Amino acid sequence: MRRGSLIQLTAIALVAGAICTAVALAIPWLPVDAGKEAHRIHFVFWFTTIICIGVFSVVAAVLIYSVWKFRAGPDDDSDGPPVHGHTGIEIAWTAVPAVLVTAISIVSAIVLAQNGDAGSNPLIIKVTAQQFAWTFTYPDGTTQGSLTIPEGRHTKLDITSKDVIHSFWVPQLSQKQDAVPGQHNFLVITPTRTGTFPVICTELCGLGHSVMRSHVTIMTAAGFAAFQRSGGKAPAGPPGLAVFQQNGCGGCHTFKPAAATGNVGPDLDKLKQFAAQAGRGPLATFIKESIVTPAAYVAPGFPEGMPHIYGSQIPAGKLDQLVQYLAAGSK
Ligand code: CUA
């Protein structure tokens, strides 16, 4: 190949690579990383992206150069010159990608092994998914509707489900893990940044899938110690509010006193009106029946009643608190 052609090819490759690099850097493709694991995963993304930009530049240069230099004239109906393979180039385009793909797999395997390592003293939190809410149980037995974890310590999530398959995902922590009934899956997170980030269900799990959300609050180690001393208390409010939040009622229902905006089930702000329509006894009786035996009366316009698990899941005392809370807050 002539020296001039080589310079032209190289120039095209550099321009293609520069454009690609600008696109890669100008757009914020990844969320901020809030954990060591996310940081490692982002490293793999960039490692792979840099290799891809290199390969793209070479391919684009050869393609653009060929279209430009070897274009046939308008009246040129002749066959092209007979060309046979080039052993040297074929060896190169087999060996180079093999080395690159092997490098990506080695880097990925190292990151995968590091991200699965919870160390010797992880904070273990049980994560339970159900239609359509998350609950988080701490080592001292307290249960919350959202996740609170300390910065700088390995946290091991023990993830399962009560009904169908869900999937736990926090974009800023980069990892996803399925929540499968009858099975325990684990996820290790080591937060490096304080803040509040969304917890999202990423497995289509029914009508309320899109509202099956919670949040994770990452605190400083000192803040988390104080949080644990307070018994992981939910923000002060009527006792029924805590029951409402712990059972994820807001995932499906709108209820203004709890700032809940779900729209899978009936609007609980209108419970009085629904009770009158249903004609199934006083308000509190109607609310309790709707929770314990949801199939007894399904509100018109809703294809199916609520899942049947709440009657056995919510202890009697808490159930009464919830019923009173809903009755007092509805119009
Ligand atoms: Cu749970 Cu989607």
What would a concise description of this structure say?
This protein is of the alpha+beta class.
Question: How does this structure look, described?
Answer:
With 331 residues, the protein is an alpha+beta fold. The chain folds into 3 domains: 98 residues; 107 residues, Cupredoxins -  blue copper proteins (Immunoglobulin-like), CATH 2.60.40; 91 residues, Cytochrome Bc1 Complex, Chain D, domain 2. Helices cover 42% and strands 17% of the residues. It is built from 9 helices and 12 strands. The strands form 3 sheets. The protein has a 5-stranded mixed beta sheet, with no helix packed on it. It has a 5-stranded mixed beta sheet with strand order 4-10-9-6-7. Strand 2 and strand 3 form a beta hairpin. Helix 1 runs antiparallel to helix 2 and helix 7 packs across helix 9. It is elongated and about 90 Å long. It starts with a helix and ends with a helix. The mean pLDDT is 88. It binds dinuclear copper ion. The site of dinuclear copper ion has 9 residues, from loops.
Bound molecules: dinuclear copper ion
Q: What percent of residues adopt helix (DSSP H or I)?
A: 40-55%
Radius of gyration: 29 Å
Cα shape: elongated
| Overall tally of structural domains | 3
CATH superfamily heading of the largest domain:
Cupredoxins -  blue copper proteins
Q: Stretches where pLDDT falls below 50 for ≥5 residues? A: none
Number of DSSP strand runs: 12
Give the helix/strand class: alpha+beta
Q: If helices are DSSP runs of H or I spanning 4 or more residues, what is the number of helices?
A: 9
Q: Strand share of the residues?
A: 15-25%
**CATH fold node name of the largest domain:** Immunoglobulin-like
Would you state the CATH class of the largest domain? Mainly Beta
Largest sheet: 5 strands, mixed
CATH architecture of the largest domain: Sandwich
- What is the typical, i.e. mean, pLDDT? 88
Strand order of the largest sheet: 3-2-1-5-8
How far do the termini sit from each other?
84 Å
The secondary-structure element order is HHHEEEEEEEEEEHHEEHHHH
